[in-house]
Structure formats: structure tokens, C-alpha cells
Amino acid sequence: MTRHIPSSEITPRHVYVSRRKFIRGLGLATGALALAACGALPSREGRSATPTTMPQAGAMTDELGDPINTYEEITTYNNFYEFTTDKEGVARMVKEYARPEPWKVTVGGLVNNPRVYDLDDLRKFGEEERVYRLRCVEAWSMVIPWLGFPLRKLLEEVEPASQARYVRFEAIYDPDGLPGQRIDWYNWPYVEGLRLDEAMHDLTILATGLYGEPLPMQNGAPVRLVVPWKYGFKSIKSIVKIDLVAEQPVSLWMAAAPHEYGFYANVNPDVPHPRWSQRTERRIGELKRRETLPFNGYAEEVAYLYEGMDLRKNY
Ligand SMILES: Nc1nc2c(c(=O)[nH]1)N[C@H]1C(S)=C(S)[C@@H](COP(=O)(O)O)O[C@H]1N2
Ligand SMILES: [Mo]
Known about the structure:
With 315 residues, the chain is an alpha+beta fold.
């Protein structure tokens, strides 16, 4: 059995630390570098190779000049309710978990070319670095250097049929291995959705890695969605199924608390959560709170998608 070994176990601690110092040094000098393309998808043998290359280039900041969070922060403070609701507990619990192998992503519904992708098949879409802010609806945030590819590339291959208007994503369902799924407050599996034009937007990616390395389980290995202008809960982890559909999907959060979580979930400082303000956020690693930006700072790229819509009603 091939147990997935988190990269943090493969790479000795001191290598990570020195690599991060190295990256940081480069970044401060030039402001925009790129991490080495170690390749985050598992090798043909089905197991992640130990990274051997040092980072060459790497964005140390996002396009607003905010520094990226550390690998430690990104991989030890997680929301992944299939494991536990304790953010610090997720990274500990994933060590005990062997995810299903081989992983498959089934893409179907209203498409002309339904197909099942294994991780090797996803390689053809390539991997590029995207440094994105992630803003959780709970009002904390991070800056994360993802590796991944635009979801559009995969959708173009399966060819959405003319009746397709939304994309529905489904995450892993494994109650034997995932303790959170043995508690049924939630309607498992985790489901999320996007309108088709949101899914086709260039900022929308399927992430397969971070910090130039394979995605750790706690961040949604082996493949997860990242939609940076929406609250973090839209960025569904550990995807096994993608369907093109005609009707707006009902997400896990909409089903759990419809008055608190809508379908769109665009980051919006003007619309408070019923139980707290969304005006400011705590950037992990910083002391002073920051102002939350409309569409999480991506308004120029995405505001046109919502022209004419009432974003207070469509929260
Ligand atoms: N399958 C699944 N995906 C999920 C979640 C989850 O509990 N299960 N939590 C979401 C929430 S609330 C956030 S903020 C982000 C956190 O991503 P990160 O841990 O990689 O920072 O993942 C999202 N994707
Ligand atoms: Mo979140």
C-alpha cells in the first residue's frame, strides 16, 4: 500500500528552514521571484519524489507587496472539517491518515467528453505558481504560493454542454478514515459550486502544490480548488468529483446554515457575517488587523462578473 507521505516528513526540517531563508533573502532583494518548479504532482511511481532542487525564483510577496506566509503557518493552521474542527489539530491528524490510492477525479454531468483523471493525467495541464491571498470567512487570512493550473484548461477538455451553467465539486468521502465524517452535523461529503463563468476565470485554479512542493494533506491533497476572491470555504479540498450542472449547487455550508452562507461568498467588507463584521481581518503572523478589501483585492479582475447583481442579497 502506498501511504501518502507528507513532504514535511520527506524533507528534513533544516532543509525547509534554510530553503525558506533562502527564498526570503531573494524576495526581499527583487520583490518578485518564482519558486523552483520541483513539480508537485507525484512521480510516475505514484509517490512524491524528495525535492532535490533549490528554489531559483520565487515570489516572496503578492502583487500588493504583502509577504507570503511561512510554510509552517500555511501547513499548521487549517480548516479541514473532515479531520477535525481544531485548526492546529488537522496537521497532527493527517499523519495518521492514508488517503485512498490511486486518487481519481471523475468529471462528468453536462459535458461532451466525460472522463476520469488520475494524478498523472492532470500533469498535462502543467503547474504554475500563483501567489494568492486566502481570506477565511472567520476573518483571518494568509498569503499562499500555490502551484496549480487554471480550472479552465480541464473544463475545455471535457467541453461543457450548452445547458451547463454551474460547476459542482465534491470532496473525498471516507468516514472510516476521516473522524470528522463520523459526526453528522454536516451533510458529507463537502460540496462546493461555482457559476461556469467564475470557474472559467483565469484566477480560478486547481492547486496541486504549495511552496514548490506537493500539496500537504492538510491543505487538500492531492488536488483542491482555489478561488482567491471568495471566502476560503469555497476553495474545496481533496476533490474527487466535478460535475457540470444546470442548477445552482447547494454547498455543504449553504445546507448547514443558509442564513449565514450563500452561494457566492465573495469577500465583501460591506456585508457582515450575521455574527461578526467582515470589515477587517487578522493576517496570520501579524499583530495589527488589516482592512478587508472588496473581492479580497481582486476587484479589478473579477467585479465585472457580478455587474447588475445585488451583492447584499447574493452573499
Ligand atoms: N474538503 C474541505 N475543503 C475545505 C474545508 C473543509 O473543511 N473541507 N475548509 C475550507 C475553509 S473554511 C478554508 S478557510 C480553507 C482553508 O484552506 P487551508 O487550510 O489550505 O488554508 O479550506 C476550505 N476547504
Ligand atoms: Mo474558512
